[in-house]
Amino acid sequence: MDKETEEDRRDNNSDEEKRNVSPESSEVEDSEMERLRRYLIQKLRLVDLSTSNQSDQSQQRVLRELSLDGIVEYIKEKPDCKIITMAGAGISTSAGIPDFRSPSSGLYHKLDKYNLPYPQAIFELDFFTKNPEPFFTLARELLPEGFRPTMSHYFIRLLWEKGLLLRHYTQNIDTLERVAGLPPEKLVEAHGTFHTGRCLKCRAPYMLSWMKEKILEGMIPKCEECNEGVVKPDIVFFGEMLPERFQELADRDFVQADLLIIMGSSLVVQPFASLVDRVRTTCPRLLINNEKVGMQDRLSRFLGLRQGLVFDTKSTQGGRDIAWLGDCDTGCQLLADKLGWGDELRTLVQKEHDNLDVKNRNDN
Fold first, then answer.
1. Which residues bind Zn(2+) (predicted)?
2. What is the pLDDT of residues 5-27, one digit of tens each?
3. What is d(CA 153, CA 85) in angstroms, rounded to the nearest whole number?
4. What domains are defined for the chain?
5. In the chain, count of helices (H) and strands (E)?
6. Which of these is catalytic: 109, 153, 168, 191?
């Protein structure tokens, strides 16, 4: 009984101490945390402290309203708005092309029949060099054969037609941006493309039409120049560098962007995911996706680093990032509607799909 009484006494004293913490003590603790934060930032040279407060204030004034309507108002007020779009597999799934990571329908969950040591091996250069057959068997499902670009693809094209698209960066290898009519100079295929290929031995170049014929016949494309090497599509495998075009244009484009729109990407694959941090602190970022992704982690938030998207409007770094959750086609159509382009986008999609249907019938 005495022991319980003593414990109760200690608990009561502890509660009393908490209640008696003065505002001055709390301020001292906050000040110590801020001093620690700034010390770490300075020592690690993570942020220019002389401009951090100014940048935080400017971010608060980027959008008048943290919503899709705020983005629309921002675009309408900037007739020369330079927009960069970033896209992942989510803009192509409605065309019938599976993504990689979905729990039930993703490609990584359908690779058991290939007897791989692990799913990603099918896209590893070392494994491909030793055993290319599983990749080319899978390639028959990935080839842009009969697939039609989606509403999202044509929204990107519409941005270009209106003179607003600075560049489109895509993780996709399906070439649907090209099929949608986006000019090659406006396109950066960060993870490569099926559009071209090269012999791994002599580097002789080949086009999609030649590779497609071999792949659809169930053959491994062999080089007709050296008669030895396998012709590998110019998609980036694990273990390969990203295209030089990606690095060169990313350095130039993102510092110019007035608006960044990210669509249908999980933002987990680097260095593509880190592109969201390369725009200026005054550049709004709109995510159109089924879920929030690419968000700032706790350590980055503590250190004041501008890494990741910040959807918390209470944060000192909030005020420019918007998440619209849903499928990409619906989000793009809604954005077009709000911008007054809705009917134009629907007409474009219908017209282009009709043209593709005629072309496919003639080819067959």
1. 199, 202, 223, 226
2. 454 554 455 444 444 545 455 45
3. 11
4. 43-52+62-97+149-191+243-364 (3.40.50.1220), 99-146+193-235 (3.30.1600.10)
5. 13, 9
6. 191
Neighbour count for residue 159 (Cβ, 10 Å): 26
Residues 6+ apart with CB under 8 A from 77: none
The 3-class SS string of 293-305 reads CCECCHHHHHHCC
287 contacts 293 by C-beta, under 8 angstroms: yes
Backbone angles phi, psi at 61, to 5 degrees: -105, 10
Active site residue 195: no
Contact 280, 257 (CB under 8 A): yes
Chain mean position to CA 316: 24
Does 84 appear as a known binding residue? Answer: no
pTM score of the predicted model: 0.77
The model's pLDDT over 114-153, given as tens digits with 9 standing for 90+, comes to 778 887 888 899 899 999 988 888 887 777 567 899 999 9
283 is in an annotated binding site: no
Cβ partners under 8 Å of residue 194, min gap 6: 139, 142, 143, 144, 173, 174, 175, 208, 211, 233, 234, 235
Q: Evaluate whether 310 touches 318 at the Cβ level (below 8 Å).
A: yes
Q: Are 309 and 276 in contact (CB under 8 A)?
A: yes
Q: Please indicate if the annotation marks 322 as binding a ligand.
A: no
Total residues belonging to the chain? 364
290 in a known ligand binding site: yes
Q: CA 350, CA 364: separation in Å to the nearest integer?
A: 21
Within 13 A of 197's CA, how many CA atoms are on the CB side? 25
Q: What Rg do the C-alpha atoms of the chain give, in angstroms?
A: 26
Rounded CA-CA distance 40/36 in Å is 6
Find out whether the peptide bond into 271 is cis, omega within 30 degrees of 0. Answer: yes
